[in-house]
Recover the amino acids of this structure.
């Protein structure tokens, strides 16, 4: 199989370039894109640089752009891809080296939405009660793995990475707004009411298209907008 | 020499569940604490934990008792677990769960709004009676939910993180440990992080085996660091093989799938656990189930063209249970086995999963060494989580006791460090020789040229461990494996990396990790050879019985090859000791 991979090492390269590798993926028992990238690194070129950890789609380390679409290398089957397989770093984020991007802005936007439960009531001796129906509202939200596939596929984030929270952050914002145990819903909504944080979303749904966990940030964003309307009325 | 130094009250190595629970305790207390993690914290392996976390809340059954939980844990450990530590863990389990719930962890719920609890292996009522529902969970993504919740609380508490920094070695001092030598992966900068207390929370080392449920990052970094500092590891022969790793891929399928009613079958469609363990069947302890599956495969009743796996049947549970309680399992099975468990059984095989042994500690997570048969506390050094051996798991861990272990003892470490700092725990100053020693691994990899590659040595190491130190062991195989390992250790000294760059050099990190894998494998090989009995996960053909007269003791390994022993603690503080008896 032919791979065309984005290369850039700030110590030695003036500019990024694409490098081709031919790998016998069957002989190397490669099923997923990650298997192939590691086989290339291990047997052909140890300078190829990428992040990886769990190799099962739950840690969110190996988000990258594969044949033009963001996804996780470890859960993308080679058999689903056309050759040459073109691998680039996630778009819209500064490249540190090869497929490793600087995720600082992504994490800053995540932290901005106060991604933790806030509850001003006295702490009970046992658990806070939550009905299965209330808990079900968190499904499709809490499973986010912070891989940045969605946010880095969003043109609104490319334009305003410092001001637009982006789909991943907004999904988490709604995860806490929707939690029956959180008492700061109004403040959370008010924090997103400026023209940029949330309203730069144009609803083009790139985020939904690429999410490797099948989550729907656009829906969460719309839910937040509706709650804002309700609060305003 | 000109070495950058930064000072903290506490430095925590590792950003998984144990590290983040410790850092939360310390950051909230106002101490100056730094977490250094080789990956962004939510990429740590805690994220892969699925089934849940045990605590005797009695939510599903109406009643439960931490003493029953303690009994099950001691039985599960095959009596190698320290009863004072198990008592501490099981007693503190309920408050630990409530604390996690208050932090925001999105637990699954019962109709009455309480936390949902499912059945899991080895969990009983009334000291060995009927199965109990003791495992709290967030569907089958409990580790993910826990790790993200703990990270979120750390964001709120403004803990300081050194993300994508690699801890290369402990820096010793005349008395105890002065801190760690750390490498900034992005820039290649080396910094000495000096601390009143250093807490190791470096997780496991499943990557010493070819087939493992563990993440690529589980390379036993804390084990390498401790051994190179002249300190011992304990019970390193006890590796848990999880009965249900996806055949070929190694990806974990939670025991919760059997807790929800799934069961294992052989090629004849027989539910074979009924034959091996009539009482608890598929929910027997993991060592029992894994051995039974291996016997089925070895005796020709395995499934598939090569007969090299068994099947986990779930389809009878129905769409609602699978989609509500086991959605992650369904996703993993479709992706990695090409099988939808709603329709077909999942091909599974016992797969290396967890290390019961590790860095010996007190119940307050203080690291211990032994001198002349006496325990000594190592000043300024703590360990918690999978890298530690308290020992609450003994020779075999119960499912859903590891998430409990990491939060209970992460918290215990945080509490004890706070107290020690209040009582005046100071800094220790290393000599220039101590500093040099902590840099020697990095210098070797920077200087070595034209040697064998990391990948070649790593592959051989994994093959040796898989073939000679697997589910069943014999002296013959282990001694052969041991000789091969010693030769490989020599070859590792002259191995080299081609990439010598500074920026985000992951080849260099993998090389440093390989040093740690080798130390871990050797510790395992030494102690597995030494223990001439079968106990828990350490199963020998040539010594098939447990031998309490000679082997009811913890084994200790030092990197010079010295082996020592410590007694098992059979003296809990509040309850009667649990007396020796046979397991099912």
């Amino acid at each position: 199989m032919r791979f065309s991979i984005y290369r850039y090492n700030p110590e030695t390269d003036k500019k990024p370039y694409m490098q081709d590798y031919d790998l016998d993926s069957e002989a190397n028992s490669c099923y997923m894109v990650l298997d192939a990238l590691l086989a290339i690194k291990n047997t052909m070129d140890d300078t190829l640089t990428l992040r990886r950890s769990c190799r099962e789609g739950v840690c969110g380390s190996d988000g990258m752009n594969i044949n033009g679409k963001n996804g996780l290398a470890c859960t993308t089957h080679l058999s689903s891809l056309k050759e040459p397989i073109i691998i680039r770093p996630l778009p819209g984020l500064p490249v540190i080296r090869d497929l490793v991007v600087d995720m600082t802005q992504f994490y800053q936007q995540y932290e901005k939405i106060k991604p933790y439960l806030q509850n001003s009531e006295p702490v009970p001796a046992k658990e806070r009660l939550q009905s299965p129906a209330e808990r079900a509202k968190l499904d499709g939200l809490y499973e986010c793995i912070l891989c940045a596939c969605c946010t880095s596929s969003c043109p609104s984030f490319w334009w305003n990475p410092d001001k637009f929270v982006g789909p991943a952050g907004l999904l988490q914002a709604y995860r806490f707004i929707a939690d029956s145990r959180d008492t700061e819903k109004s403040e959370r909504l008010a924090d997103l009411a400026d023209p940029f944080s949330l309203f730069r979303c144009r609803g083009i749904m790139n985020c939904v298209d690429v999410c490797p966990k099948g989550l729907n940030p656009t829906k969460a964003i719309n839910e937040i907008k509706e709650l804002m309307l309700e609060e305003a009325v | 020499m000109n070495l950058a130094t930064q000072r903290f009250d506490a430095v925590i190595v590792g950003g998984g569940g144990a590290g983040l629970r410790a850092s939360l305790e310390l950051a909230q207390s106002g101490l100056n604490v730094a977490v250094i993690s080789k990956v962004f914290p939510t990429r740590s392996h805690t994220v892969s934990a699925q089934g849940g976390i045990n605590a005797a809340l009695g939510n599903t059954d109406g009643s439960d008792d931490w003493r029953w939980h303690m009994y099950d844990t001691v039985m599960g450990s095959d009596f190698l677990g320290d009863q004072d530590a198990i008592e501490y863990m099981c007693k503190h389990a309920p408050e630990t769960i409530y604390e996690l719930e208050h932090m925001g962890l999105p637990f699954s719920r019962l109709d009455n709004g309480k936390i949902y609890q499912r059945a899991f292996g080895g969990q009983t009522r009334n000291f060995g009676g009927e199965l109990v529902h003791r495992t709290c969970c967030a569907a089958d993504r409990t580790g993910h939910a826990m790790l993200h919740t703990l990270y979120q609380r750390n964001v709120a508490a403004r803990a300081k993180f050194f993300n994508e920094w690699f801890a290369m070695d402990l820096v010793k001092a005349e008395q105890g440990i002065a801190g760690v030598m750390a490498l900034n992966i992005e820039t290649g900068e080396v910094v000495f992080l000096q601390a009143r207390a250093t807490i190791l929370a470096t997780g496991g080392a499943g990557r010493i085996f070819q087939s493992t449920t563990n993440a690529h990052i589980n390379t036993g970094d804390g084990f390498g660091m401790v051994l190179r500092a002249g300190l011992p590891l304990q019970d390193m022969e006890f590796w848990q093989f999880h009965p249900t790793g996806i055949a070929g891929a190694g990806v974990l399928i939670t025991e919760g799938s059997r807790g929800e009613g799934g069961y294992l079958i052989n090629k004849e469609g027989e539910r074979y656990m009924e034959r091996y363990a009539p009482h608890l069947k598929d929910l027997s302890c993991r060592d029992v189930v894994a051995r039974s599956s291996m016997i089925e495969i070895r005796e020709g009743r395995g499934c598939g063209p090569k007969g090299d796996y068994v099947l986990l049947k779930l389809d009878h549970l129905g769409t609602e249970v699978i989609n509500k309680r086991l959605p992650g399992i369904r996703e993993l099975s479709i992706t990695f086995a090409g099988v939808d468990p709603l329709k077909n059984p999942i091909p599974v095989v016992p797969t290396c999963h967890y290390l019961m042994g590790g860095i010996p500690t007190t119940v307050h997570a203080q690291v211990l060494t032994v001198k002349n048969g006496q325990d000594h506390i190592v000043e300024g050094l703590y360990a918690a989580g999978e890298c530690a051996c308290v020992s609450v798991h003994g020779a075999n861990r119960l499912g859903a006791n590891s998430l409990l272990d990491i939060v209970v003892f992460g918290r215990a470490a945080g509490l004890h460090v706070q107290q020690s700092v209040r009582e005046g725990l100071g800094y220790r100053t290393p000599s220039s020789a101590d500093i040099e020693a902590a840099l020697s691994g990095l210098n070797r990899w920077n200087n070595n040229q034209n040697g064998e590659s990391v990948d070649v040595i790593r592959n051989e190491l994994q093959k040796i461990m898989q073939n000679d130190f697997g589910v069943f062991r014999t002296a013959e195989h282990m001694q052969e494996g041991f000789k091969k390992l010693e030769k490989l250790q020599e070859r590792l000294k002259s191995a080299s990396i081609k990439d010598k760059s500074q920026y985000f050099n992951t080849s260099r990190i993998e090389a440093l990790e390989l040093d740690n894998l080798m130390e871990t494998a050797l510790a395992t090989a030494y102690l597995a050879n030494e223990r001439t009995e079968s106990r828990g996960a350490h199963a020998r053909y040539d010594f098939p019985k447990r031998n309490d007269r000679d082997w009811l003791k913890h084994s200790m390994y030092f990197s010079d090859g010295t082996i020592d022993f410590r007694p098992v603690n059979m003296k809990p503080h509040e309850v009667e000791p649990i007396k020796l008896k046979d397991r099912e």
User: Anything to note?
Assistant: Chain B has a mean pLDDT of 97.
